[in-house]
User: Fold this.
Amino acid sequence: MDFATGPLGTLLPKLAKLLQDEYKLHKGARKGIEFLSSELEAMHAAKRAARRAAKDLGPGCQGAVLRHWRTSLTPSWWTSRGS
Assistant:
């Protein structure tokens, strides 16, 4: 019986470690998804506010307001990624 259970003694701790690492990976992904979701919701709300402001200013100002909104909300890491 020792011959059959011997390899399991070293395999089980390795499998347990693998499962723990996989769980941590999924937990981290969930946090990242929640962060991105909240960022997108905030951007969407800001975009709606910018559109309302542009509409109040008149048709000639809409493009300028939306360009300003886009550049002010674009994170610095995004604009510097091509450098």
Helices lie at 2-57, 62-73, 76-79. The chain has a mean pLDDT of 76.
